[in-house]
Amino acid sequence: MTDPLIHTHETLTARDGAPVEIDTEMVPVVRELWRLNYTTLACCQDVGEATAGVREQAAKPLGYGADGFIAYHRGWALLKLPFLDAMRLVAVLSREPAFADRVRHRWRPGSWRMNVPLVPEGLDEAALLHFPREQLLELVEVLEQQ
User: Residue 10 pLDDT more than 90?
Assistant: First the structure.
């Protein structure tokens, strides 16, 4: 769901029949999430790399994506889910030995982050889950067991 010129991608068919471009490394995760009836709104296999690529292609400044943002997000994958689906996923992962500490404890190496943006009405309906890209295969393995 990133600009297809930034990461290699596959086109999958969403549950509603729409074609959706998914970063290649995110495809197994998205397939498992869909199998488990989660709704995905966006994903990215490397937010820092993608932001740098989009910035390089942009004809005008993005309004985000400064050097510090890019450096901070390199190596971090992203899943954007409706808030309730994000909470359900975190609850499932909190019971799995491979992910329990990662989703329960903040700011440790390998820990996940959840961001729910503020909007004029309060909190956004979607949550952004950031986690180390290196955990993608482990995440798929855990989801396959659900």
Answer: yes
